[in-house]
Specification:
single chain, 224 residues, alpha/beta, 7-stranded mixed beta sheet, two-stranded antiparallel ribbon, 7 helices, 9 strands
């Protein structure tokens, strides 16, 4: 069989976004978002997801399912990545903290939507791979740090938005403190294993108002 060409991959990427559209429509009442916004759509059409998965899974990169990336971690299902991105309501001028870089796919999406992305990854090998791939794609507005994501990135705070790609029983205090107090948004899975829900939070002053959307299953946020 011939190898996949860039033209083939572009078609598969469009199909991936079409499937995301269908899921948004079907889950509109549950997620509160009937359609994918144009800016987020363009980002998902542009980012080559096949470059952010292990080589042996490249042909499966545009299926709407999570894929293993090593160290008992996965790259999220495209629909979930799109939903979490959509819930951040990013503006071009925003500064974003991402907790859980992985191999950098979600980071690349965020880099197309925000002015600056600060990403923390606990697995050193992932951070190195993600950094090199993001640089190769020309994303110069991204900084990656190896460490405990629950502690955030205090020197770069406050953030307009924080995306946490792993679950915790509650929002880490450090992340709440680093969120802008006048409308900063946070999206993450909250809860114990087997009982997690995706939540969106908005900070006003010292209060973070959380809204639960749907049941999810994520790996647990590692602390060191």
């Amino acid at each position: 069989m011939k190898p996949l060409t860039e033209a083939h991959l572009a078609i598969l990427r469009r199909h991936m976004v079409e499937v995301i559209d269908i899921e948004f429509d079907l889950l509109a009442e549950e997620i509160g978002r009937p359609v994918l916004s144009q800016r987020v759509r363009e980002a998902f059409l542009a980012v080559p997801r096949h470059l952010f998965v292990p080589t042996q899974f490249a042909a499966m990169a545009y299926q709407d399912s999570p894929l293993p990336i090593g160290f008992d971690k996965t790259i999220s299902q495209p629909f979930m990545a799109a939903l979490m991105t959509e819930l951040l309501d990013l503006a071009e001028s925003d500064s974003v903290l991402e907790v859980g870089t992985g191999l950098g796919y979600q980071t690349a999406v965020l880099a197309r939507l925000a002015a600056r992305v600060w990403s923390v990854e606990v697995v050193e090998e992932f951070a190195g791979i993600a950094d090199s791939r993001l640089i190769a794609l020309g994303h110069e507005n991204v900084a990656i740090r190896i460490g405990d994501g629950s502690r955030g990135w205090a020197e770069a705070a406050p953030f307009d938005a924080i995306l946490v790609c792993a679950a915790a029983p509650e929002v880490p205090e450090a992340l709440l403190a680093q969120l802008k107090p006048d409308g900063g948004r946070l999206v993450m899975p909250i809860g114990e294993p087997g009982a997690q829900r995706l939540v969106r939070g908005v900070r006003n002053g010292d209060e973070l108002t959380l809204h639960g959307l749907m049941a999810v299953q994520f790996t647990e946020l590692e602390t060191v």
